[in-house]
Amino acid sequence: MFQSRTHNCNELRLSDAGKNVTLCGWFENIRKVSKNLGFLVLRDFYGKTQVVIETEEMMERISGVNCESTLQITGVVRERSSKNTDMATGEIEVVPSEITVLGKCIYNELPFEINRSKEADENTRLKYRYLDLRNPAVKNNILLRANIVADLRRAMTEEGFLEITTPILTCSSPEGARDYLVPSRLHPGQFYALPQAPQQFKQILMASGFDRYFQIAPCFRDEDARADRSPGEFYQLDMEMSFASQEDVFAVLERVLPPVFARYGVYKTASTAPFTRIKYLDALEKYGSDKPDLRIDLVAEDVTDVLSDCGFGPFAAGNVIKAVRVSDCKLARKAIDKILVDVEVVSGSKACWFKVGEDGSFTGGISKFLTERQAALTEKLGLKSGDCVFMAAGKKNQAQKTAGVIIKTVGPQAEGHMKKDCYEFCWIVDFPMYEIGEESGELEFCHNPFSMPQGGVEALKNEDPLTIMAYQYDLVELSSGAVRNHDPEIMVEAFRIVGLGEEDVKKKFPAMYNAFCYGAPPHAGIAPGVDRMVMLIAGEESIREIIPFPMNKNAVDLMMGSPSGVEQKQLDDVHIAIVADDKEEE
């Protein structure tokens, strides 16, 4: 009969010397000195304890037991003669009187060494995730996630928000990414969809009279993986407030987030309220991105008026030219060449450069094209000896994008231009309500179709749609949000501009539209990504490091074998027939 442990493997201290204890855990390794002396390390969720084998009987008991088997060890605690300051239990050891194998590991060799699993191939780690999670470094990220989520829940409750769960099976969304569809057994030919976000439900809650809502919401989107985005599902701190403005949303997150980042982050410094606010168009102009990293002190400046038609092809008249000045630049030529390659890969456009010599003259890169414009450019950018200037040119949006990539590529590499030991929060505000779609070439919503336009219905009826701003905002790298369009008249007018009539709105969003017709309060919200937040706090490069059971980059769960085929009866139950893909047959 299994007897429960008296202590965990991180608990015993010198004050416990002389006690008879029982420990349970995984057999991590053993260092055998002789046939009757060995040092065994037992590991559980909490930590490690050294167990000293001092008899042939005990050595025989452990002989043939593979590492990573689970053991129960009963014995006496004593002071170690050679202490290990790197272990919390390093002042003691346990001399066993009984060793019981609770769960056998039948394999002599493991797919990877547990404590070095992060060095293994990612697909191997994901296939054997249950072994990967035994690595304390991996486990600690999951523990960190749990603690962060608990703190977020506590903080939101203290702010007066009520945690409410919204449906997982819902209707397909006509906007956004691809849905995950679930066929209905009771309604042939019809489908549920997993929610891309609880957007409509939380707005309906506001119309239902709930004042402040939140949940750690699971969201499902059929989209490709990225380093900072997991395919399939993700979680967000979803929140909504009635009778609230943009400022009310900002105030809540500026109180909730900084303490969490400061408490758990690899960097102990985080922005305090109020966070920096930058208008969307200003962010594009100054940083080349609506997601600027304010830890980098580099900015983009428009030098079109100085360099247009200077003889360098990309600077031809009609193109916008952006320059990023890097003061006291110590980057070697090899590093600069690598930066130019990286910028082109990310932005799709070439960048160029030159340096300022000791006498103030331009050298290297495209300097030969700038001789006649040197004085004007020096004055425009405030150039000094030792500066390096990176430049981008093209249509306005492309020049801005390339300049933004330059900033984010050069910043971490150029000495003295990035604060790497802190978190800098930033609000991007005043997004355009509409834009011309890159693929369609037609007028589309820029950010969120449910946002309130600045100026209300009058702006929608009387102004150029491309000049209308919305009460939309981003918390850079974490979240998007908005003051919602709660007025049916304004909603219909907003959709009319993109070619959808009142009947289209009623058909696509029947519940929300009808709820708003019964008197809805002004409301606003936001939904910071929990996975992304934990990834930043942990200082990890891949979001898969902070998810307990992630899919790989191809949206495959290698451990469970998902997605997988199903039996014909299961397909018949939900009225589904699989049709062969002609392309596959070819």
Give the strand line-up of the largest sheet. Answer: 6-9-10-24-23-22-19-12
Uncertain ranges: none
Structural class: alpha+beta
* Sheet with the most strands, sense and barrel status: 8 strands, mixed
Compute the number of strand runs.
Answer: 24
Brief account:
The protein is 28% helix and 23% strand.
Question: Would you kindly provide a written description of the structure presented here, covering whatever features stand out?
Answer:
The protein is α+β, with helices and mostly antiparallel strands and 586 residues long. The strands form 6 sheets. It has an 8-stranded mixed beta sheet, with helices on both faces. The protein has a 5-stranded antiparallel beta sheet with strand order 3-2-1-4-5, covered by helices on one side. The protein has a 5-stranded antiparallel beta sheet with strand order 13-14-17-15-16. Helix 7 (280-287) crosses helix 11 and helix 14 (502-508) packs across helix 15 (510-516). The mean pLDDT is 94.
